[in-house]
Amino acid sequence: MPASALTENIKIPQKQNGENSVRREVSRSLSISTSPHDAFHHRQPSMGLEGSSPTLRRTTTGAVAKQLKPFREQDVKILLLENVNQTGRDILQGQGYQVEFLKSSLPEDQLIEKIKDVHVIGIRSKTKLTSRVLAAAKNLIVIGCFCIGTNQVDLQYAASHGICVFNSPFSNSRSVAELVICEIIALARQLGDRSNEMHRGTWNKVSAKCWEVRGKTLGIIGYGHIGSQLSVLAESMGMDVIYYDVVNLMGMGNARQVPSLDQLLSTADFVTCHVPELPETMNMISKHQLDTMKQGSYLINASRGSVVDIPALVDAMRAGHIAGAALDVYPAEPAGNGDYFTNELNPWAEDLRSLKNLILTPHIGGSTEEAQSAIGVEVADALVRYVNEGVTVGAVNMPEVSLRSLTMDEPNHARVIFIHQNVPGVLRRVNEILGDHNVDKQMTDSRGDVAYLMADVSSVRDEDIAQLYRELESLKERIITRILY
Ligand SMILES: NC(=O)c1ccc[n+]([C@@H]2O[C@H](COP(=O)([O-])OP(=O)(O)OC[C@H]3O[C@@H](n4cnc5c(N)ncnc54)[C@H](O)[C@@H]3O)[C@@H](O)[C@H]2O)c1
Ligand SMILES: O=C(O)CC[C@@H](O)C(=O)O
């Protein structure tokens, strides 16, 4: 590749017979396509030096990191659903990508239509990326969950089709913990009921069954990012904290881990759930667990709607055994805002709405300006790194692979990314293909059935890149090949 390749557009060679040659587009199958009009370019080094490019940066050695792109930015199609924060939109639009933004989620059929030609999709908790939806996503290379939970995505299907998934593991944890602290006091003081009464014009000054939280015991189920933040805040209000987790974890402050869920339930005055949605956490709080809770205790669920058996909770509250509850999440949640919290959505919605001292919120645990803007930056940055450089650090369904950036001092390099089935013999065959070139650095890792290889090769010409691509594509274990340069 001539040095001028850095500064001018290059026409892509076409095969005479019109077969696939080296069209460059950000397709799942790299990068190499057939359009006679397609050209690619690398940014000029001066752009970064003048600070006019948001993406050019320096490596730790001071060299200008090279922007790896086998495609034109405007060809990268991104669909952002569920009101992803402006910070994330700015980063993606700043790259020059085509970004379509919608405030709500989409019903499955519309989603299947829309997802057909996008390369990147950004969602929050409402968009279900099932295997049926993903099967229609022929160009998709990466999914950004602008939230913590990734249960809405078929992670296994995505990985086996070479689609990388990123999330934001803790940017909204503090917001959830603060909401739960607020709910503990609100339940102890029956604040929701008093406020509703006043809204209806009723003055009802009572102290019966209203409590201070000082000296009460908080039981946290799932002592991860949210549970441990909550632990610190609760202790600072004078509460005793116990927690139950499947992993043995050090408690913050004076918090103590208890060996069984039943022990936590029978000891705590307030029980709060912070576990992920998993087969093992489905209806984790059901009739037996509610019966095991102390008479007059309180339940909070801001994790996932599948964790609490709601009809059982309704019974326990009607019986007066549970004195109050706060729910932020539900088995079925609407795609957007509106008058949807009815029996049509969940068959017990009216029962819930009739209960006293029950705080119902529309999945707002992580909905603060601070959390959403931090998540926007974190996930959009991960998407840009993946699209432009193939870096998977932070991915939730792929091995984490990264190489130091190529620099502008290395003009004739290409980065080969080969996502493949994790079976014996593939690496030998890949290295036979790469072996005709100088492999400067290489990293490979596997996760379950999928392996991810990244290699930087030097002194490659356009025709070498096309050849490498074709040979890698011909391997039967190939899932996705991308070559970035
Ligand atoms: N309401 C909201 O807006 C909101 C916001 C953020 C997260 N969430 C939900 O909260 C969940 C927890 O978030 P996090 O960031 O604390 O997650 P995390 O992964 O940091 O912690 C989860 C903890 O649960 C434990 N765990 C898993 N299975 C368990 C089981 N069967 N029994 C006991 N413990 C178990 C894990 O070991 C881990 O320590 C998320 O998965 C997400 O679904 C909701
Ligand atoms: O913002 C959302 O939709 C999801 C919030 C929360 O449940 C999460 O998983 O981070």
TrEMBL record:
The UniProt entry, under SUPFAM superfamilies, shows: ACT-like, Formate/glycerate dehydrogenase catalytic domain-like, NAD(P)-binding Rossmann-fold domains
Q: Which InterPro entries match?
A: ACT-like_dom_sf, ACT_dom, D-2-hydroxyacid_DH, D-isomer_2_OHA_DH_cat_dom, D-isomer_DH_CS, D-isomer_DH_CS1, D-isomer_DH_NAD-bd, NAD(P)-bd_dom_sf
Biochemical pathway:
Amino-acid biosynthesis; L-serine biosynthesis; L-serine from 3-phospho-D-glycerate: step 1/3
Q: Which reactions appear under catalytic activity for this entry?
A: (2R)-3-phosphoglycerate + NAD(+) = 3-phosphooxypyruvate + NADH + H(+); (R)-2-hydroxyglutarate + NAD(+) = 2-oxoglutarate + NADH + H(+)
Q: Does the keyword NAD apply?
A: yes
EC no. given is: 1.1.1.399, 1.1.1.95
Write out the ranges of the annotated region (Disordered): 33-56
Which family is it part of? Belongs to the D-isomer specific 2-hydroxyacid dehydrogenase family.
Entry function: Catalyzes the reversible oxidation of 3-phospho-D-glycerate to 3-phosphonooxypyruvate, the first step of the phosphorylated L-serine biosynthesis pathway. Also catalyzes the reversible oxidation of 2-hydroxyglutarate to 2-oxoglutarate.
The protein's name in its UniProt record: 2-oxoglutarate reductase
Q: What is the lineage of its organism?
A: Eukaryota, Fungi, Dikarya, Ascomycota, Pezizomycotina
